[in-house]
Structures are given as C-alpha cells and as structure tokens.
Design goal:
alpha+beta, Beta-Lactamase, 5 domains, 51% helix
Length: 598
C-alpha cells in the first residue's frame, strides 16, 4: 500500500515539476521542445491510425469506388436473356475482376461453348472455315468480309496467323505459319459463336475456387454482410484468406442463380509497412529540420524582445527619449508601438500633471482675485450707497427743519426718489451677482425667440435712436430660438444697447446681428465712431469702472455702475463665449450660446 502511495506521489511531483521547469526555460528552448512534441504527437497518432483504422478504411474506399459499377453490372446481367458473355467480359476486363455464375447451391454453371469462334465462307472455294478469335475484344458482324491466313488447330477449328478486316490488318500472330501449312481464305462472315458466360475462363481460378467453397460450405454467413443495392439482393465482405486481399460481391441473378464477383485489392499491411518505413526517414529528416529552424526562429524572436525589454527598463527610469524600433514582424512591431505609446503617454501624463499643477496654481490665484474682487465690490457698493443715503438724509432733515423752502421741497423729494431708485437698482444687481455666484442657484431656463427679444429692445430705444440720428444696420434672422434664462438674457441685451447709445457719437452707425448655426446662436452689436484703449479693454468688466466718453444724458435712467460686471456673470452662468473687442473704427460686443442647455 505504501509503495502505491509513494509511486502516486512521485507521479504528482513529476506532473507538477514539468510545467514549472518548462516556464523557466528560455523562449528558444520552449519553442524547440514544443515543436518536437507536436511533431512526435503527430507521428504517434499517424502510426496508430495506420495500424488500427487504415485496413478497414481502405476496404470501405475500395467498396465505395466499385459499388456503383458492380450494381450496373448486375443490372445488365439481369436482363431477359441468357447471354452474359459481353457483360462479364467488359466488367472483368475493366476492373481486373473475376466473376462466375452459380446455381442456388453455389455450384459453378457450365458454359454452352468454351471458345469465341467465327465461320467464314471462302469466296473462291465456297468452303466454310471456323477459326478461334484470338482476343475477346475483337468484334465482328455477319456478312463482314475478312481475309485470313489460317493453320489447323484441330479437326474442326483453325487458328489465325493473320486477320485482315475491312479497316486493315487487325491481328498478326507471334507464330506465323509456313507456306506449306498456311491456308489463305477470303470471304464473308456467316456465323459468330460465343460462350454464354465466362465461367469456363474463371472456374479454375484460385480466388474464385476459394470464395465459392467458403460460401457453399457455410464458412461465410452471407446474411451478416447484406447491403442496400437498390432492389437486387446483394452481399459483400472482405476476404484475407487467399494470396491477396479481395472484396467479394454476391448478387442474386434472375431469382434462381447467383453471380459471385471477386476483386483483388492491395494488401494494406504491405502498404502500412511501406508507409511506416518511409515515414521513419521522412520524420527523422523533419525533426532535424525542425531543430535547426527552431534555433533560427528562437533567435529571431528573442533578440527583438530583449531589445524591447531594454527600452522598457529605460522608460521605468523615466527616460522617455528612447524608443523601440523592432519591426521584424507584426507582433514585434505592435509591441514596439505599444511600448513607444506607453512612453509617450507617460511623458504626456507627467507634462499634463505639471500643467494641471500650474493651472491649479493659476486657478487659486484667480479665486483669490475673485475673493478680493468680491470684497472690493462690497466695499464699493457700501461706499456708493453712502452718497445717496447722505443726500436723502440731508434733504429730509432739511425739510423737517424748515431749511428747504416749500416751493423747493417737491424738487428735492424727486431727487430723493431718484436716489432711492438708483440705490434699489444697485442692491438688486448686487443680489443678482451673489445669486449667480451661488452654485445652488438654478437658472430659470425656457425656450424663447432671441430675434423677437432683440427687436423688442430696438423698439424700446427707438426714441433715443431717432433723437441722436443713429444709423441702425440690422441683420437679424427670423425665429432664432434658444434655451436660456429670458430675464437675464434681456438684461445682457439691454446693457449692450444702452452702452452703445451712451458711447456712439451722434449720427454714427450701430450694427446689430442675430444669427444661428446648427448648434449655436450668435449676437453681435458694433457701434462705430469710438474705440477703447488697450489698457481699458480688460477693465471694463470691473464693477464701477466707467469710460470717459460716457454720455449719461442720452438715457433716462442712470446705471448702477456694475452693469458689465453683471453681464459677464450672467454669460458665464450660461457657459457662453463672449467679449468686447475693438474693430475697425468701432467696438464690438458679442456672445455665443448653445441652442440647447447641456
């Protein structure tokens, strides 16, 4: 019991060791071992198949090859006559076969004649001469004219030395007759006699005698070998008892007779032995060639891999200036390209990280500036609110103290109302800015016609446009729809038009455009006759920054001073592309918005 366990453990250790050892081998050795094992497996498999299945496979192939011809032969033999000579002769000659007709007890039938003879009547002497046809392939017809040189075969028959048919010399014997023994005959064929079958020719054949005796003696059980013939009862089997291997067919002939056909086939054992002997030399040569090519292929495969490995080690040391250039085959090219791609991606990633770090630094600076700007905005608004509050306080106190005369009180109270309105606008703008700055604030998005909205403001400012004789050039497409916060976009358009009226010289041109593409809408307002200095372009978005060219007398209401700053916050909230730039003899304000909210 212990010996069995130790042997079992030994097998397990071997099975575990082989793959572990194989993995440690170099790629060249692995390829060599793999090729040899594959080839040896093929060799063993082929040898096994040759010895086990080839014999039956060969017999089946021979049967398939001859079966259709044998069935045609049997069907011809089953016609309503008793002359089988031509059919038997043709089939046995073409297929190197032996065929006999037997009775119900499997006894060979005797032929009506044993020779193929032709009788010719000599034209000169009118005598009849019957000669034996030397070859069953020769065919003659009654009344056909023949010229013959004959010599005596027996008392009744002659043998031909020369046969001249209508088409020329048909037969010349190897044993010509002498002038003393030759009989020259020329005349027409009067009679043709053939045996009704070829039993006389094959009945003493060793293969025929062997198979007939086996069948008649019950050695072969035909019922075990029946096969589908399409109507005629038939059997077939393979015989290896004679000097050569044969395929034997037995078919019913006109219900009371049988026809036995024996077809020799090549001895498969000899074939297998010849093939095996030949394969030994072929496989030995192949193994030598495989070993030589394995070393060559292994070298071809391993050198590029070693080169690529060196490049990979350099990349691991963050040296991205090296590249793999192994293009000897598709796989090496793909691996080289992958290594190079990894190198480039790592390099790009490190550069991107560095860039992102710089962007984070810049963003931090920007956020710091925004915080500072917000503080400045609160401080500026507080300062801006002090002045109107002071004016309102002084005015109301003056009225209460009777300092302001009664006739001046209405005027002063109107000034107070104006200051209140101005302060209210400033406070509303400040609240709107803080709402936009809050990440939780949601825009009131709706779909509206931007073209109609712009036309509304053009009409709203119509009096000012006419008063200052502005030349309005309108290029507005109809029905340009967008999804946005209508109230806030109105504030943007109103601010742009208000600024244009404030800063455009009297009588100059104002160009307004609204257009669309597949995904975007575009608004532009260009007022001619004025340009902004380069050092002021970036400052105009700051709160409470005003240009010197401003003329506040052209509009009814004064602004809060943070209009453009609010405009920038609104457009940022809509993720718009916007700006104010100098153009030829003018200033252009514009924005682009996506049609759909993402």
């Amino acid at each position: 019991m212990s010996k069995r366990k130790s042997f079992s453990q030994f097998l397990k250790d071997i099975i575990t060791f082989i793959p572990r050892y194989y993995r440690k081998l170099s790629i060249s050795t692995q390829l060599l071992v793999t090729f040899v094992l594959i080839f040896m497996s093929f060799f063993v498999l082929q040898t096994f198949l040759n010895n086990t299945f080839f014999k039956s496979y060969y017999a089946e192939r021979e049967f398939e090859k001859i079966s259709s011809d044998i069935l045609k032969y049997v069907n011809k033999m089953n016609v309503e006559d008793s002359d089988y000579y031509n059919e038997m002769y043709q089939f046995t000659t073409e297929n190197n076969a032996y065929s006999v007709i037997v009775d119900g007890q499997y006894r060979v039938l005797k032929a009506s004649d044993t020779s193929y003879t032709v009788t010719v009547q000599d034209t000169v002497s009118s005598e009849f001469y019957t000669f034996i046809v030397p070859d069953n392939n020769y065919e003659y017809t009654l009344s056909e004219t023949l010229s013959l040189d004959l010599f005596t075969y027996n008392e009744e028959l002659y043998s031909p030395a020369i046969i001249n048919a209508s088409e020329g010399v048909e037969f010349t014997s190897e044993f010509p007759c002498s002038p003393e023994t030759c009989i020259t005959v020329s005349g027409e064929v009067t009679q043709i006699t053939k045996p009704n079958h070829l039993n006389y020719f094959f009945e003493e054949n060793n293969l025929i005698e062997l198979e007939v005796s086996k069948i008649s003696g019950g050695v072969v059980d035909l019922d075990s070998y029946e096969y589908d013939t399409g109507g005629v009862e038939g059997f077939w089997y393979r015989s290896s008892d004679g000097p050569v291997d044969t395929i034997v067919f037995v078919h019913n002939l006109k219900s009371w007779h049988w026809i036995i056909t024996v077809i020799p086939i090549v001895n498969t054992n000899e074939i297998v032995n010849i093939i095996s002997a030949y394969n030994y030399y072929a496989y030995l040569t192949a193994i030598v060639i495989i070993i030589l090519w394995s070393f060559r292929i292994s070298s071809t495969l391993s050198k590029p891999i070693q080169s690529i490995e060196g490049v990979a080690r350099e990349i691991a040391q963050l040296n991205f200036n090296v590249e793999a250039h192994e293009y000897t085959n598709k796989e090496n090219e793909s691996l080289s390209n992958s290594i190079n791609l990894i190198s480039r991606n790592l390099k790009d990633t490190l550069e991107t990280i560095s860039t992102k770090n710089q962007e984070l630094t810049d963003l931090y600076d920007t956020q710091s500036k925004q915080v500072s700007l917000k503080k400045q905005l609160v401080s500026s608004i507080s300062h801006e609110l002090k002045t109107p509050l002071m004016i309102m306080q002084v005015t109301i106190q003056g009225i209460l103290d009777g300092i302001i005369e009664e006739k001046e009180q209405e005027k002063e109270l109107n000034n107070v109302i104006q200051e209140i309105n101005k302060s209210s606008i400033m406070i509303q703008d400040m609240l709107q800015i803080y709402r936009l700055d809050d990440a939780n604030t949601q825009l009131e998005i709706c779909e509206f016609d931007l073209s109609k909205t712009v036309y509304f403001f053009i009409n709203d400012f119509e009096n000012a446009i006419k008063k200052f004789n502005f030349d309005i050039d309108i290029n507005i497409q109809d029905e340009v729809y967008i999804e946005a916060d209508l109230k806030l976009i109105k504030r943007v358009i109103s601010n742009f038009i208000t600024n244009a009226i404030k800063y455009t010289p009297i009588g100059d041109k104002i160009y307004i455009e609204v257009s669309e593409t597949k995904d975007e809408v575009y608004f532009e307002l260009t007022n001619n006759g004025i340009v902004i200095s380069e050092d002021e372009i970036d400052k105009i978005w700051l709160p409470f920054y005003r240009l010197d060219q401003e003329d506040n007398t052209r509009v009814k209401s004064k602004g809060s001073g943070i209009g453009l700053y609010l405009v920038s916050e609104i457009l940022k909230a809509h993720q718009a592309d916007f700006g104010i730039t100098n153009v030829k003899n003018g200033v252009k304000a514009y924005f682009r918005l996506n049609k759909k909210v993402e």
